Fold:
Amino acid sequence: MDERMRFTDYIRPPMEAGKYMVRASQKVSQPETEEFKQETDFYITGHAFTLPKEDVFSCFPDAEESGEFEMVLPYIVMENRTFPWEQVITGERDGVPVPWVALIVLAEGEAEEQDMTVRELLSGKERQERIYFPGKEKLPAVYCESEDDLCHVADIPKILFDHIMPSVEDLPYLCHVKSVDLAKTEDDICEKDGFFSVVCANRLVPSGADTSLKSTVHLVSLLGYGDLAGIPDCDRVRLVSLFHWNVYSRQQSEENFPAVIERLRNNCGVMGYDRDTALRRKGYSVKEHKTRTGEKTYSLYRSPLLPFLNEEELDTHDRHTADGSLIYDKSVGVLDVTYSAAWQLGRMVTLSQPSVAGEIQQERAERKQAEHQRLVKHNFQFRQDLMETALSDLLKLEKEEGESHEEDVTGGNEPEKGAPVPPVFRGYR
Structure:
């Protein structure tokens, strides 16, 4: 199978950040037996308070983008495949390492943000303002930043922290690794190995009703917070934002996540909903249906997620359009658009990928070329057969005419000796 994208739960780094020791020894026997030993300490460090911009491959929604993101969970894609698991904050959960970062969404006014040096961050002055931040003893012993480097922090109310911060059990589900085929991308992207780590948020983007509401997406460090359950009593919690960007969202329709869930719960009605019908048991619901010619009607639709084993068999032979997958239900006299909607959804998802759409276009062109060559070959063969048949007929006609003239000239008898013999025409008439 041609794999274009593969998802992996996590990838452990070869060596986690920390202090290591390398020991080497050598024994010699000449001129005398002696053993030499040497020990050296070395450190593997990582960024604990800042993050270089070049380490970020992309983010969604894009920075400073405006739109309707009320139904969107933001995410960030990192160049480093092992980034979320390079630091350890707590023990594993079911054999899966817990990421040391989280992606949170803060609406405008929910947090106080500022830039400060690492020295100021670790000074402990925040305790005087009833702001909690882990002490030095809970943070890594070594890190890449110097004390004069600037970092960005966000102070959020303790109540909001408890409400939006994912639990330690949820963190492994919010990070993964994806492997992507970059063969048909731009030159600067094509050079990459195709492995990226992804961190997803657990909060939908807040939206304004009349105007766009500004929200900031923060990739925050969880170093020193342990299992996130031991936060002492405080007014606010300080989080180090490794990377952040702004988005603007405005509610442009009445659709929102709670409304969708509520409609899913209530929108189970079908014709004869008050009765225990076969359609109701199969999960069908009635949906508005606008045909291609403009008429408005209603049709049956069923979700692909079924609470039972579906034993239906659909004949998909020669069904190359969405309308070809429409099913007329004679029991109620309306159309079933389930398979038609699935066909159209698959088509849209496929064409939304530029590389796949390009391959489809190339395949269509190759098929047209092959059909053209087949027709040209067939036409050439037809003309060749026609010419051979015509030539055979002409040769046969020539032979018959030659024999006929020879009989006319001789009259069936040998000519007299010395008498002139009339010429015989052997050309084409």
Notes: The first strand starts at residue 5 and ends at 8. Confidence is low (pLDDT under 50) at residues 268-274, 425-429. The chain has seven helices and 18 strands.
